Amino acid sequence: MRDPVTRRRLLGLCLGTAAVAACSAPGTRRPAAPASSEPNSAGPPATSDSPEPAGPGGPAGPAGPATEVVRSTSGRAQLALTFHGAGEVTLARRVLDLLAQHNAHVTVLAVGTWLQASPDAAKMVLDGGHELGNHTWSHPALSRYQPEPMHVEIQRCRDKLVELTGGPGAFFRQSQGQHATAAELEQAGRAGYARVLSYDIDSTDWRDPGPAAIRAAVATARAGSVISMHLGHEGTLAALPGILTDLADRGLTAVTATELLR
Q1: Is-contact 234 90, C-beta < 8 A?
Q2: What is the CATH number of the domain that holds 241?
Q3: Residue 37 domain flag
Q4: Domain residues for 172?
Q5: pTM (2 decimals)?
Q6: I need a labelling partner for 186 at 20 to 30 A (CA). Which of 51, 68, 81, 240 fits?
Q7: CA–CA dist 65, 14 (Å, integer)
Q8: What tens digit of pLDDT does each residue of 127-159 get?
Protein backbone atom coordinates (compact mmCIF):
# COMPACT_ATOMS: atom_id res chain seq x y z
CA MET A 1 0.00 0.00 0.00
CA ARG A 2 6.22 8.36 -10.73
CA ASP A 3 8.90 9.80 -14.56
CA PRO A 4 9.59 11.64 -18.17
CA VAL A 5 10.61 9.60 -21.14
CA THR A 6 14.37 9.29 -20.84
CA ARG A 7 16.78 8.21 -23.57
CA ARG A 8 16.52 4.48 -23.99
CA ARG A 9 19.58 2.68 -22.85
CA LEU A 10 20.66 -0.86 -23.54
CA LEU A 11 19.23 -3.07 -20.87
CA GLY A 12 21.59 -3.40 -17.93
CA LEU A 13 21.84 -6.65 -16.11
CA CYS A 14 19.43 -6.73 -13.20
CA LEU A 15 20.85 -7.59 -9.84
CA GLY A 16 19.50 -10.83 -8.50
CA THR A 17 16.40 -10.75 -6.41
CA ALA A 18 17.01 -9.51 -2.92
CA ALA A 19 15.35 -9.66 0.40
CA VAL A 20 12.21 -7.61 0.76
CA ALA A 21 10.38 -4.72 1.53
CA ALA A 22 9.32 -1.70 3.27
CA CYS A 23 8.21 1.11 1.34
CA SER A 24 7.63 8.36 2.77
CA ALA A 25 6.34 13.18 2.46
CA PRO A 26 4.73 15.19 -0.08
CA GLY A 27 6.53 16.62 -3.03
CA THR A 28 10.05 15.71 -2.09
CA ARG A 29 12.69 13.54 -3.65
CA ARG A 30 14.77 11.67 -1.18
CA PRO A 31 17.84 9.43 -1.23
CA ALA A 32 17.30 5.72 -1.09
CA ALA A 33 16.52 4.31 2.33
CA PRO A 34 18.08 0.99 3.35
CA ALA A 35 16.16 -1.94 1.94
CA SER A 36 14.21 -4.05 4.39
CA SER A 37 14.80 -7.74 4.82
CA GLU A 38 11.37 -9.12 3.97
CA PRO A 39 11.94 -12.18 1.73
CA ASN A 40 11.16 -11.97 -1.96
CA SER A 41 10.69 -15.06 -4.05
CA ALA A 42 10.10 -13.44 -7.42
CA GLY A 43 12.68 -13.63 -10.17
CA PRO A 44 14.08 -10.83 -12.34
CA PRO A 45 11.69 -9.01 -14.64
CA ALA A 46 11.15 -9.76 -18.26
CA THR A 47 12.28 -7.07 -20.65
CA SER A 48 10.34 -5.18 -23.24
CA ASP A 49 11.24 -2.91 -26.13
CA SER A 50 7.67 -1.86 -26.79
CA PRO A 51 6.78 1.83 -26.63
CA GLU A 52 4.53 3.26 -23.95
CA PRO A 53 0.87 2.53 -24.71
CA ALA A 54 -1.37 5.39 -25.70
CA GLY A 55 -4.52 3.61 -24.50
CA PRO A 56 -6.18 3.50 -21.07
CA GLY A 57 -3.65 3.67 -18.29
CA GLY A 58 -0.79 4.72 -20.52
CA PRO A 59 0.74 8.17 -20.34
CA ALA A 60 -0.73 10.79 -22.64
CA GLY A 61 2.77 11.93 -23.54
CA PRO A 62 6.22 12.55 -22.10
CA ALA A 63 6.02 13.20 -18.37
CA GLY A 64 8.45 14.59 -15.84
CA PRO A 65 9.63 12.68 -12.79
CA ALA A 66 6.92 11.66 -10.39
CA THR A 67 6.54 13.46 -7.08
CA GLU A 68 7.03 11.49 -3.88
CA VAL A 69 4.30 11.87 -1.28
CA VAL A 70 4.69 10.58 2.24
CA ARG A 71 1.88 12.01 4.33
CA SER A 72 -0.86 14.61 4.25
CA THR A 73 -0.56 18.00 5.87
CA SER A 74 -4.27 18.85 5.50
CA GLY A 75 -4.94 18.67 9.24
CA ARG A 76 -8.00 16.45 8.72
CA ALA A 77 -8.47 13.64 11.24
CA GLN A 78 -7.66 11.00 8.65
CA LEU A 79 -4.84 8.64 7.80
CA ALA A 80 -4.21 6.02 5.13
CA LEU A 81 -3.69 2.34 5.77
CA THR A 82 -1.84 1.06 2.71
CA PHE A 83 -1.35 -2.65 2.08
CA HIS A 84 1.20 -4.36 -0.10
CA GLY A 85 -0.87 -6.68 -2.28
CA ALA A 86 0.72 -10.13 -2.24
CA GLY A 87 0.34 -13.46 -0.50
CA GLU A 88 -2.54 -15.87 -0.04
CA VAL A 89 -5.75 -14.44 -1.47
CA THR A 90 -7.98 -16.09 1.12
CA LEU A 91 -6.04 -14.29 3.83
CA ALA A 92 -6.30 -11.01 1.91
CA ARG A 93 -10.06 -11.50 1.71
CA ARG A 94 -10.25 -11.94 5.49
CA VAL A 95 -8.30 -8.70 5.96
CA LEU A 96 -10.64 -6.84 3.61
CA ASP A 97 -13.72 -8.33 5.30
CA LEU A 98 -12.46 -7.08 8.65
CA LEU A 99 -11.84 -3.61 7.24
CA ALA A 100 -15.41 -3.59 5.92
CA GLN A 101 -16.75 -4.37 9.38
CA HIS A 102 -15.06 -1.19 10.62
CA ASN A 103 -16.04 0.88 7.57
CA ALA A 104 -12.36 1.48 6.81
CA HIS A 105 -11.16 2.11 3.26
CA VAL A 106 -7.58 1.46 2.25
CA THR A 107 -5.14 1.54 -0.63
CA VAL A 108 -3.69 -1.75 -1.87
CA LEU A 109 -0.39 -1.48 -3.76
CA ALA A 110 -0.51 -4.67 -5.78
CA VAL A 111 2.44 -6.75 -6.94
CA GLY A 112 2.00 -7.74 -10.59
CA THR A 113 2.77 -11.42 -10.11
CA TRP A 114 0.05 -11.54 -7.41
CA LEU A 115 -2.46 -10.05 -9.83
CA GLN A 116 -1.39 -12.49 -12.52
CA ALA A 117 -1.72 -15.51 -10.25
CA SER A 118 -5.01 -14.30 -8.71
CA PRO A 119 -6.76 -12.04 -11.23
CA ASP A 120 -9.90 -11.90 -9.06
CA ALA A 121 -7.87 -10.09 -6.39
CA ALA A 122 -8.16 -6.75 -8.19
CA LYS A 123 -11.96 -6.98 -8.33
CA MET A 124 -12.07 -8.08 -4.69
CA VAL A 125 -10.18 -4.94 -3.65
CA LEU A 126 -12.23 -2.54 -5.76
CA ASP A 127 -15.56 -4.12 -4.85
CA GLY A 128 -14.77 -3.37 -1.21
CA GLY A 129 -14.56 0.34 -1.94
CA HIS A 130 -10.78 0.36 -1.74
CA GLU A 131 -8.27 1.56 -4.33
CA LEU A 132 -5.41 -0.11 -6.17
CA GLY A 133 -1.90 1.01 -6.97
CA ASN A 134 1.24 -0.39 -8.58
CA HIS A 135 3.91 -2.06 -6.43
CA THR A 136 6.15 -3.36 -9.25
CA TRP A 137 5.86 -6.60 -11.14
CA SER A 138 7.94 -8.91 -8.94
CA HIS A 139 8.87 -6.89 -5.81
CA PRO A 140 12.65 -6.72 -6.30
CA ALA A 141 15.16 -4.46 -4.59
CA LEU A 142 14.15 -1.90 -7.18
CA SER A 143 16.61 0.86 -6.32
CA ARG A 144 19.47 -1.45 -7.36
CA TYR A 145 18.14 -1.87 -10.89
CA GLN A 146 19.40 -0.07 -13.97
CA PRO A 147 16.87 2.39 -15.45
CA GLU A 148 15.47 0.16 -18.20
CA PRO A 149 14.84 -2.98 -16.09
CA MET A 150 13.45 -0.69 -13.38
CA HIS A 151 11.03 0.78 -15.90
CA VAL A 152 9.96 -2.69 -17.05
CA GLU A 153 9.08 -3.66 -13.47
CA ILE A 154 6.79 -0.63 -13.20
CA GLN A 155 5.39 -0.94 -16.72
CA ARG A 156 4.49 -4.64 -16.48
CA CYS A 157 2.48 -4.15 -13.28
CA ARG A 158 0.85 -1.04 -14.76
CA ASP A 159 -0.20 -2.97 -17.83
CA LYS A 160 -1.65 -5.80 -15.74
CA LEU A 161 -3.69 -3.28 -13.74
CA VAL A 162 -4.96 -1.75 -16.98
CA GLU A 163 -5.88 -5.21 -18.27
CA LEU A 164 -7.80 -6.13 -15.12
CA THR A 165 -9.35 -2.80 -14.14
CA GLY A 166 -9.11 -0.42 -17.09
CA GLY A 167 -6.68 1.90 -15.31
CA PRO A 168 -3.07 1.94 -14.06
CA GLY A 169 -3.90 2.44 -10.40
CA ALA A 170 -3.85 5.61 -8.35
CA PHE A 171 -0.18 5.50 -7.33
CA PHE A 172 3.11 3.71 -7.79
CA ARG A 173 5.08 2.54 -4.76
CA GLN A 174 8.68 1.40 -4.97
CA SER A 175 9.49 -2.07 -3.63
CA GLN A 176 11.98 -2.68 -0.84
CA GLY A 177 12.41 0.94 0.15
CA GLN A 178 10.49 3.40 2.31
CA HIS A 179 11.43 6.36 0.12
CA ALA A 180 11.80 6.62 -3.65
CA THR A 181 15.15 7.31 -5.23
CA ALA A 182 15.55 9.90 -7.99
CA ALA A 183 15.80 7.05 -10.52
CA GLU A 184 12.56 5.48 -9.24
CA LEU A 185 10.79 8.84 -9.50
CA GLU A 186 12.11 9.20 -13.04
CA GLN A 187 10.94 5.78 -14.17
CA ALA A 188 7.57 6.05 -12.40
CA GLY A 189 6.91 9.32 -14.23
CA ARG A 190 8.00 7.74 -17.48
CA ALA A 191 5.40 5.02 -16.91
CA GLY A 192 2.72 7.68 -16.46
CA TYR A 193 2.49 8.02 -12.68
CA ALA A 194 2.35 11.55 -11.29
CA ARG A 195 2.86 10.50 -7.67
CA VAL A 196 4.88 7.85 -5.85
CA LEU A 197 3.25 6.90 -2.58
CA SER A 198 5.81 6.35 0.14
CA TYR A 199 4.94 6.34 3.85
CA ASP A 200 5.93 7.69 7.24
CA ILE A 201 4.88 4.72 9.40
CA ASP A 202 6.15 1.16 8.96
CA SER A 203 3.89 -1.29 10.78
CA THR A 204 6.77 -3.83 10.71
CA ASP A 205 4.20 -6.55 10.00
CA TRP A 206 6.44 -8.01 7.26
CA ARG A 207 8.80 -9.10 10.03
CA ASP A 208 5.99 -11.05 11.74
CA PRO A 209 6.81 -9.56 15.17
CA GLY A 210 3.42 -10.47 16.62
CA PRO A 211 0.11 -8.58 16.76
CA ALA A 212 1.04 -6.51 19.83
CA ALA A 213 4.20 -5.16 18.18
CA ILE A 214 2.34 -4.34 14.95
CA ARG A 215 -0.38 -2.53 16.90
CA ALA A 216 2.24 -0.56 18.85
CA ALA A 217 4.02 0.49 15.64
CA VAL A 218 0.79 1.76 14.08
CA ALA A 219 -0.09 3.59 17.31
CA THR A 220 2.72 6.06 16.49
CA ALA A 221 0.72 7.30 13.48
CA ARG A 222 -0.99 10.68 13.61
CA ALA A 223 -3.43 12.60 11.46
CA GLY A 224 -2.11 12.61 7.91
CA SER A 225 0.07 9.53 8.25
CA VAL A 226 0.49 6.92 5.53
CA ILE A 227 1.01 3.49 7.09
CA SER A 228 2.62 0.52 5.35
CA MET A 229 1.05 -2.89 5.99
CA HIS A 230 0.80 -6.24 4.18
CA LEU A 231 -2.17 -8.37 3.18
CA GLY A 232 -0.32 -11.69 3.29
CA HIS A 233 0.56 -11.97 6.98
CA GLU A 234 -1.53 -13.62 9.70
CA GLY A 235 -0.13 -11.21 12.29
CA THR A 236 -1.56 -8.29 10.35
CA LEU A 237 -5.03 -9.81 10.45
CA ALA A 238 -4.72 -10.50 14.17
CA ALA A 239 -3.53 -6.95 14.88
CA LEU A 240 -6.17 -5.14 12.84
CA PRO A 241 -9.11 -5.19 15.27
CA GLY A 242 -7.00 -3.48 17.94
CA ILE A 243 -5.51 -1.06 15.41
CA LEU A 244 -8.91 -0.01 14.11
CA THR A 245 -10.28 0.36 17.64
CA ASP A 246 -7.28 2.50 18.59
CA LEU A 247 -7.83 4.76 15.58
CA ALA A 248 -11.52 5.18 16.38
CA ASP A 249 -10.73 5.99 20.01
CA ARG A 250 -8.37 8.72 18.77
CA GLY A 251 -10.97 10.12 16.37
CA LEU A 252 -8.99 9.10 13.29
CA THR A 253 -10.62 7.72 10.15
CA ALA A 254 -8.90 5.28 7.78
CA VAL A 255 -9.38 6.47 4.18
CA THR A 256 -7.80 5.75 0.83
CA ALA A 257 -4.59 7.56 0.00
CA THR A 258 -6.41 9.51 -2.73
CA GLU A 259 -8.94 10.76 -0.18
CA LEU A 260 -6.21 11.56 2.34
CA LEU A 261 -4.19 13.58 -0.18
CA ARG A 262 -7.01 15.45 -1.89
Answers
A1: no
A2: 3.20.20.370
A3: no
A4: 67-260
A5: 0.79
A6: 81
A7: 22
A8: 999 999 999 999 999 999 999 999 999 999 999
